[in-house]
# Entry
Amino acid sequence: MAAVYPKQYKSFAIHHNNIEDIDASHVNNLQDEVLAIQQALGLLPHQDQGLQGKMKQYTWKSVADRLDAMQRGYGIPACYLSKASDSVYDDKTKTISFAKPAAYADPEGLFNGHSITANRSGWWIVMGRVLWYNAKGALATGADRQISLAVGGSQVMTQDLQPVSDGNTHMHIAWQGWVRAGLAIDLQVYHPLNGKTLSLQNLQLSAVMVREAVGMPTPY
# Structure
């Protein structure tokens, strides 16, 4: 007899020792229902498998724990990197290298040694921040400044700031779009002054995946 779960609950009769004979159908019905439960849950339902990067899978203690985590946003790929200071020399684009973040800032191990690598294909939101530090009037040289976000080595978003007379200059940048698993997400900076070094402070790079995707409509 076919299992009734998951469309409805199965009712079972109560059996007694030394009073009745146990029929094979009694055991078979139990097996059918157990198999139906297994097929509904799938294999290893308490694990998130197939991740790319250092962490190939994430395991919860139970299916209930995994569902609870999903409801609260746990397990959504996210990473936050920060750096107190840096500098960029000459008129060449520089990719910022960050230090390894604390575990709470990178729970799924997206840090690739200098920036972030997407561990799943999907729709991502990426943000960056840079403070161009005006040490002893260095920014008064009249340089325009640029920060960019790059995915897989290709710039996907760029922000330019025209020359300012003086003062520290804050720049923020954000981008959202499709990212394939395995591609690096980088923060890049640039200024056009030959032979000059400009100082940077309070650098930040963060990325969070909104949802996964099966097939990518763009090359990123």
